[in-house]
Amino acid sequence: MSMLSCVTKNIMANKRAGILSQAALFALLALILSITISPCISVTAQEKKPEVKAATSLEEERLKILRTDLQAQIEQLKKLKQELEVMQKGLEGKRQEQLTKVIKIYEAMAAEEAAKALEKLDDDTAVQILSSLKARSAGKIMGQLDPARAAALSKKVMTRGKGL
Q1: Residues with Cβ < 8 Å from 15, sequence gap 6 or more?
Q2: What is the pTM of this model?
């Protein structure tokens, strides 16, 4: 089994396991493309000796077969990349749905209870929730938090809005 066949099988296994990142896929595509596009040195028929001619002919045939195999694998990788992109969009959509549900729950809660729950969350999750809440709800909840925690979360909400 060729090395590229092994790589392709590993990619498929990782894809099924959900651990192949888009960056890894791009790196593999770049590697395969660099191999297939690398220039070949050609020698004219007049310069070839008969035994070298036969060896060169066999080598050229082998290269043609390898290029065809690589092209098929490149196409397969492109399809996998597209599938990964579709899967990522689906996961992002589900994540957004779940966040929307949590936001609605926090908005329906009394400010005191929401603040108690928010106190127990890590900063990133709390910031994400606070950023998504309506300003009125977020303000009521922030008013119930410990002032130091409220200040720290406020600062993080501000930097999150700047894309930092």
Answers
A1: 80, 83, 84
A2: 0.50
Query: Based on the domain organization, do 31 and 76 belong to the same domain?
Result: yes
**Which tens digit of pLDDT belongs to each residue from 109-154?**
999 999 999 999 999 999 999 999 999 999 999 999 999 999 999 9
Asked if residues 80 and 25 have their Cβ atoms less than 8 Å apart, the reply is: yes
Q: Does 73 share its domain with 136?
A: no
**Structural domain of 124:** 109-164
119 in any annotated domain: yes
pLDDT tens string 57-103? 888 889 999 999 999 999 999 999 999 999 999 999 999 999 999 99
Q: Indicate if the alpha-carbon torsion angle 92, 94, 96, 102 is positive or negative.
A: negative
Same domain, 23 and 77: yes
Degrees, nearest 5: CA angle 88-93-95: 95
